[in-house]
TrEMBL record:
Any GO MF annotation of the entry: ribosomal S6-glutamic acid ligase activity
Record-level GO cellular component terms: cytoplasm
Source organism (scientific name): Comamonas aquatica
Keywords: Ligase
Domain of life: Bacteria
Pfam families according to UniProt: RimK (PF08443)
Entry keyword Hydrolase: no
InterPro entries: ATP-grasp_RimK-type
UniProt protein name: Cyanophycin synthetase
């Protein structure tokens, strides 16, 4: 039996400030001015200059104490007590809560802060529970983000998440995916049907039968032979499961407990051994854990209820990483039955050193992935395939997972269609497993999976929309279903779509969330980029035509963010004239194409001498040059709403992406050019 030894997290340094106020906050859900990750920006008032680094230190400590990422956590003080704090936060409410707790702690004395630390963490954890993705869903979403695939939460407080873009997307709900069949899910939720299918396939599973009453449960137990297991037919997470029952009173009480958790009650022969959970993803075993019983140790003075509170509910596994569920003793019928078997009540005072058993099952804590015998892995994979699941948690009872299953009399007792991943992410003993990455690889086997071609345009609104719509026509000619976003408008195959009810994702996000879109073009001006950030982490093609009249520092950050979004192997089409852009172009991870009507422009001349790509106007044609190699493209024959810079951007973009150039001739015949 594993007994927990609680320790209290603390912060070593303490500071004090008299007052500080949050003027306003802004939250970005994706790529933004500050970071590729979601962040909260807060404008602060009345912060004394020495306190800025101290506030940063507190924010880092709070984020680390509740196991939140803190890749972005920085202060930017200005004059007169004003300044900006930026911290990573997946949800706006979470970021505001962390900031508020840090400011309140900063205003306390050292002694007061030590007292209030645990309460501050509890408030943050409450917001995490209420507002954020569950840990199983979050680990898969984070694995997708590491591949620069978007992860869009489809409901504000749910675990339904879209991974990937447009028609290449996949959806997950906890650890279930688009590939999880509805029939397989229904089979897995019916333990009797699951057992029957497994037995038909030759997979060992314990004998058992359904009991319609407590008396019938006892009759079945006598027929099978005690000890037995009593559990709900369609329960989950070990709720209502009672193990190792040998007498009539315990079996009948266990029937009542199981009936409250499911529609029917199953009585099974008890298999001797340890409970194990084996996670199958696709046709592979990717993780395995072994269960331990859970209990407390008496001190001769405290009641069982007090021991549970001190040794379990205040343990970091409950408070920090939540790998252990908090126990509400008065409401946990399963534990109360277990205490009765030991002739104890919550008010009982165990002797010093007396071990009190609370849970026999559902407490999977020891990673044993590297110990799984090939025969055990084979049976787990076959069980998942027999039920029809692509992702499955296979519950086994085994004496030793290092030995073949049949030789030790082991059996599969349950198959879970939506398994929790928590025990694999935060085992108490052993190595955490990258189960999110394994599931993400299963959903997107190849590096290009989950992606569609994405073009990002940064230009004045009218110019950006015209460029976007023209590029969309060019892509539609290649067979794409193209979505266009500009401002708050979304177009699909050149048709403007109805606006959604407010609040809604940005137009760019809506394009990338649309299941029919096979290519996306997202245009925004500087103001929109500042307010909304970017709908994508990476794009294949970026077209930047600088605007004027924007604060230089802000414009530089916007340009830097747009350039860093170009994926390696992608292309940025840039127009010279902005000193910041010319300087930042060196930071672009992809290929750079400079465009300007004048072939002799110094930026084009310098770039071309270095074997770079350029586009310009010569003899009434667009010339796209890659070093010494030149390709000629048309100009529209009649004047309309085009200017040369915009048309050069379109022509150079399609040329750089190796789109079919004859299509541009057709587009040119339908367009004009305003030679300004």
């Amino acid at each position: 039996m594993r007994v927990l030894n609680p320790s209290v997290p603390h912060i070593e340094k303490v500071h004090n400030c008299q007052q500080a106020y949050v003027l306003r906050t802004r939250h970005w859900t994706g790529n933004n001015l500050w970071s590729p990750h979601p962040v909260l920006e807060a404008q602060l008032l009345d912060m004394e200059p020495p306190l800025w680094p101290q506030l940063e230190e507190l924010l880092h400590a709070l984020l680390q104490a509740v196991a939140l990422p803190d890749r972005v956590c920085e202060g930017h003080p200005q004059s007169n007590g004003r300044g900006t704090i930026v911290l990573e936060a997946s949800e706006a409410a979470l970021g505001r809560c962390v900031l508020q707790q840090a400011l309140e702690l900063l205003a306390l004395s050292a002694t007061q802060r030590a007292v209030e630390w645990a309460a501050a963490l509890a408030r943050i954890r409450f917001v995490i529970d209420e507002e954020c993705l569950g840990p199983s869903t979050a680990c898969i979403a984070n694995a997708a983000l590491q591949r620069y695939l978007p992860a869009y939460r489809l409901f504000p407080k749910g675990n339904l998440v879209q991974l990937g873009m447009g028609a290449a997307q996949q959806r997950i709900w906890t650890a279930e995916s688009d590939q999880t069949g509805a029939i397989a899910q229904d089979i897995a939720s019916d333990k009797a049907l699951t057992k029957r299918l497994l037995a038909n396939a030759g997979i060992p599973t314990p004998q058992g039968d359904l009991a319609a009453s407590p008396a019938q449960a006892w009759q079945i137990a006598q027929r099978l032979g005690v000890p037995v297991v009593v559990k709900p037919l369609d329960g989950n997470r070990a709720r209502g499961v009672s193990l190792d029952l040998v007498d009539q009173a315990s079996i009948e009480a266990a029937w009542q407990l199981a009936k409250r958790e499911g529609t029917q009650v199953l009585v099974e022969r008890c298999i001797r051994g340890h409970e194990h959970r084996v996670l199958v993803v696709g046709h592979q075993v990717v993780a395995a854990t072994r269960g331990e019983t859970l209990g407390v140790v008496g001190d001769g003075q405290s009641t069982v209820a007090e021991l549970v509170e001190a040794q379990i509910n205040q343990h970091p596994r409950c408070l920090v990483d939540m790998t252990l569920e908090r126990i509400e003793l008065s409401q946990n019928a399963k534990i109360l039955v277990e205490l009765q078997r030991q002739q104890l009540q919550p008010e009982s005072v165990p002797a010093a050193g007396q071990e009190v058993l609370l849970l026999r099952t559902g407490n999977l804590t020891v990673d044993c992935t590297d110990e799984v015998h090939p025969d055990v892995a084979h049976h787990a994979i076959m069980a998942a395939r027999t039920i029809g699941l692509d992702i499955a948690g296979i519950d086994m009872v085994l004496q030793d997972i290092r030995q073949p299953m049949l030789e030790q009399g082991g059996a599969i007792v349950e198959v879970n269609a939506g398994p929790s991943l928590l025990m694999h992410l935060y085992p108490v003993h052993g190595q955490p497993r990258a189960v999110g990455e394994a599931i993400c690889t299963h959903l997107f086997p190849h590096p290009a999976d989950g992606r569609i071609p994405v073009t990002g345009i940064l230009a004045e609104a009218d110019t950006g929309l015209r460029i976007a719509q023209t590029l969309a026509v060019w892509q539609q000619a290649q067979g794409h279903t193209t979505g266009v976003a500009s401002g708050d408008a979304m177009y699909l195959q050149a048709q403007r779509m109805l606006p959604p009810a407010s609040p809604a994702p940005s137009a760019g996000q809506r394009v990338l969330m649309h299941c029919a879109v096979t290519a996306a073009v997202i245009a925004q001006d500087l103001d929109t980029a500042v307010q909304d950030g970017w709908a994508y982490a990476q794009c294949d093609l970026a077209i930047i035509q600088p605007e004027s009249g924007t604060d230089a520092a802000v414009q530089r950050r916007v340009l830097a963010a747009q350039l860093r979004s170009v994926r390696p192997g992608g292309t940025a089409v840039l127009t010279p004239g902005d000193a910041a852009l010319e300087d930042l172009a060196l930071t672009c991870p992809g290929r750079v194409v400079w465009v300007h009507p004048d072939e002799q422009h110094p930026v084009l001349q310098s770039h071309r001498r270095q074997q770079g790509s350029v586009a310009f106007i010569r003899d009434g044609q667009v010339v796209c040059a890659d070093g010494a190699t030149e390709t000629r493209l048309p100009l529209p024959p009649q004047q309309a709403h085009w200017d040369l810079y915009a048309w050069l951007g379109v022509a150079a973009a399609g040329w750089a992406q190796q789109w079919p150039l004859p299509v541009l001739d057709v587009i040119a015949q339908q367009s004009g050019v305003d030679k300004r």
